[in-house]
Design goal:
Mean pLDDT: 88
Radius of gyration: 13 Å
Shape: elongated
Strand content: under 5%
Order of helices and strands: HHH
Length: 73
């Protein structure tokens, strides 16, 4: 289960992405991990995999929020 190890490592990694490029790379990596975990979840229906996907999705959404920046009205 190399994908699970990568996902856990990504989750534990320091998440202060300074540059825009680092944020873009991180969101792409998170998306790839989430989709891979989803394929595993479809086969196994393991609750722990679903919880990991939810945590990664939350991290990805936070990074994307920083990418979009403030909205001016």
């Amino acid at each position: 289960m190399d994908i699970l190890e990568k996902a856990l490592e990504f989750e534990q990694r320091k998440t202060s992405f300074k540059t825009t490029n680092e944020r873009i790379i991180a969101t792409r990596e998170a998306k790839e991990l989430i989709l891979s975990l989803n394929e595993i979840y479809k086969k196994d229906k393991d609750v722990e995999v679903m919880d990991l996907m939810k945590r990664l999705t939350a991290i990805k959404q936070k990074i994307e929020k920083r990418l979009k920046g403030r909205q001016t009205t």
